[in-house]
Design brief:
By secondary structure, the protein is α+β, with helices and mostly antiparallel strands. It is built from 6 helices and 13 strands.
Length: 233
């Protein structure tokens, strides 16, 4: 058993098998609204781990460097230790969620171009939105790092759209995290229905954490559907 270093809302971070690695364990916890809403959903951790591992393997095969070293079991994996950039990058293809509410755009409205946003990675502050000049002003990342994060995020977006289209799923939006390692920025954290908005093609049925946020029910069943569709691509 590896020593626990930090327990977050959906994952536990532990010491790794060596000084340059960590172990991540996915939890069954579902949270929303900065942790104000919580519930244990049996099997959720296993489903998120399986989906994220499948997506990260696909991205790695297509030239995206990720933090994944190896999968240990159905909820645990060994990852490269990085210095996490304390800025999350959000990519949107369709108006939904907070974007729709903030700008008065009907959810599901197509966007004339893909949008890229940044937020501070801070549960205490509520992950506030922040612009590039503010990020560089307070030293969260350099201009070059923001440019590289944006470049990678847009490449990942294209790759994920291609993958999900084949699975009969629409990629509405998603968030990413990056870490610094050996002078490079590499993709960290997870890509799963917890961090993406995914709608079923043709019906626009929600298949992501909005089912928990909005009390739609059947979250585990929806995640299982996403996994099954991706496995069949």
């Amino acid at each position: 058993m590896y020593k626990v270093l930090y327990e977050g809302k959906s994952k536990v971070i532990c010491e790794g098998p060596d000084k340059d690695s960590l172990v991540i364990r996915f939890k069954d916890s579902a949270t929303a609204f900065n942790g104000e809403k919580k519930e244990e959903i049996p099997g959720k951790g296993r489903l998120n781990a399986a989906i994220s591992n499948l997506i990260y393997s696909y991205l790695a095969k297509n030239g995206i460097e990720t933090h994944v070293i190896e999968v240990i079991d159905d909820i645990s994996l060994v990852v490269k230790k990085t210095e996490i950039v304390m800025v999350e990058i959000i990519v949107r293809n369709v108006a939904a969620g907070g974007f729709s509410k903030k700008y008065g755009i009907e959810e599901g409205s197509p966007l004339k171009n893909t949008t890229v946003e940044f937020s501070v990675k801070s549960d205490e502050l509520g992950d506030p939105m922040i612009n590039e000049s503010q990020i560089t002003a307070i030293g969260l990342a350099t201009a070059d790092e923001l440019q590289e994060m944006t470049r990678q995020a847009l490449k990942i977006n294209k790759l994920l759209i291609d993958l999900f289209v084949k699975a009969g799923i629409r990629l509405i939006d998603f968030k990413l995290e990056f870490g610094r390692r050996n002078g490079r920025l590499i993709l960290c954290d997870e890509i799963s229905p917890d961090s993406c908005r995914l709608w079923e093609a043709g019906t626009d049925k929600k298949l992501d954490k909005d089912r928990f946020r909005r009390d739609l029910g059947n979250l585990a069943e929806s995640y299982q559907y996403v996994l099954r569709r991706l496995q069949n691509v």
